[in-house]
């Protein structure tokens, strides 16, 4: 009997993630797919392999002995400081950090389901206008977690040098001669954008390019660099990387959320100590668009968890 093949929609339902995340996993090579005509399909065996690789560690698991590097899975929002921390900590703590930049919301949900060890997030709660903690308090009731501040970041409009379209505020995005590039649903940047549009009474259908999505800040900003779009909403450091102009709109809090198990507790404790160390602080050089005043500060923790 021929093995069943699933559509991306069916795979999204199986793992309770968005279809966009399935396509991103395929794009990054984490999930193998094949095409029949122009239709994408994923075999059952591949789904089982992926499920096994992302399975939460057993309570009986212990860190790898000797000098063998332990694997720590990081999911969530893409950020240049997160990339830097992952590379530096891999060496300093003798760990293998496996990042999966799938957006703040999906990253936090993977942490909630036990499919990763830490999440990088910047999620604005529209009701309270508070970052991250409203979502964390709702999801993690019984789990052992700790939330640590990485940085505050500047978010705003990324435009071409000289801002030729004179884009200064959100109503400018509705002009017919302005082409916009968006971030994917579930990203913290999309949360902030939609909250701002709502406060201005702007409907997304009035923004040309609102449904055109990219999965990280550099990819979105590259449209502006190539001249195929006029503006995107993102972080200042992405604009600086590509020599683009930046109009600041808001400052947001970017946090790392650690979920402790018997198997990963020592590794995560080592990571947190390194994050709070002078060695890591001294390794930071290009900080345009970031404030690291509260770097390493414990923002929230369950009562039983200490490092």
Brief overview:
With 307 residues, this protein is an alpha/beta fold. 33% of the residues lie in helices and 26% in strands.
Describe the structure.
- The chain is an alpha/beta fold and 307 residues long.
- It has 2 domains: 49 residues; 242 residues, 3-Layer(aba) Sandwich (D-Maltodextrin-Binding Protein, domain 2).
- It is built from 11 helices and 15 strands.
- Strands 4, 5, 6, 9, 10, 11, 12, 13, 14 and 15 form a 10-stranded mixed beta sheet that branches.
- Helix 1 packs across helix 2.
- The longest helix has 13 residues.
- The radius of gyration is 20 Å and the shape is globular.
- About 4% of the residues have low confidence.
| Annotation field: number of helices | 11
Strand content range: 25-35%
What is the fold-level CATH name, i.e. the topology of the largest domain? D-Maltodextrin-Binding Protein, domain 2
Give me the secondary-structure category: alpha/beta
- Helix fraction bin: 25-40%
Mean pLDDT: 89
Q: Please identify, by name, the CATH architecture of the largest domain.
A: 3-Layer(aba) Sandwich
Low-confidence stretches: 57-67
Number of individual domains = 2
Shape annotation: globular
The topology string of helices and strands comes to EHHEEHEHEHEEEHEEHEHEHEHHEE
How many strands in all?
A: 15
Major sheet: 10 strands, mixed
At the first level of CATH, what is the class of the largest domain?
Answer: Alpha Beta
> If you compute it from the alpha carbons, what radius of gyration comes out, rounded to the nearest whole angstrom?
20 Å
Distance between the termini: 53 Å
């Amino acid at each position: 009997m021929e093995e069943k093949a699933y559509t991306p929609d069916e795979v999204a339902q199986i793992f309770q993630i968005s279809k966009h995340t399935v396509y991103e996993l395929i794009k990054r090579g984490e999930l193998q797919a094949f095409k029949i005509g122009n239709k994408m399909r994923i075999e059952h065996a591949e789904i089982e392999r992926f499920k096994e690789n992302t399975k939460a560690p057993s309570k009986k698991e212990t860190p790898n002995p000797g000098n063998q590097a332990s694997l720590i899975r990081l999911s969530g929002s893409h950020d240049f400081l997160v990339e830097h921390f992952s590379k530096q900590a891999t060496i300093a703590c003798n760990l293998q950090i496996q990042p999966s930049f799938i957006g703040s919301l999906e990253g936090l949900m993977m942490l909630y389901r036990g499919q990763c060890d830490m999440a990088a997030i910047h999620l604005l709660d529209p009701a309270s206008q508070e970052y991250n903690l409203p979502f964390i308090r709702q999801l993690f009731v019984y789990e052992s977690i700790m939330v640590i501040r990485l940085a505050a970041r500047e978010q705003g409009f990324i435009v071409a040098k000289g801002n030729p379209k004179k884009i200064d505020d959100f109503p400018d995005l509705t002009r017919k001669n302005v082409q916009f590039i968006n971030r994917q649903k579930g990203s913290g940047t999309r949360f902030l954008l939609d909250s701002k549009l709502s406060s201005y009474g702007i409907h997304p259908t009035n923004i040309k390019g609102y449904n055109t999505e990219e999965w990280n800040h550099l990819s979105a900003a590259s449209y502006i660099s190539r001249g195929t779009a006029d503006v995107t909403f993102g972080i200042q450091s992405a604009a600086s990387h590509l020599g683009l102009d930046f109009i600041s709109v808001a400052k947001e809090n970017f946090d790392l959320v650690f979920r402790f198990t018997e198997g990963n507790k020592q590794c995560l404790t080592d990571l947190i100590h390194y994050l709070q160390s002078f060695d890591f602080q001294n390794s930071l050089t290009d900080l345009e668009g970031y404030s690291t005043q509260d770097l390493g500060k414990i923002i929230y923790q369950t009562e039983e968890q200490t490092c």
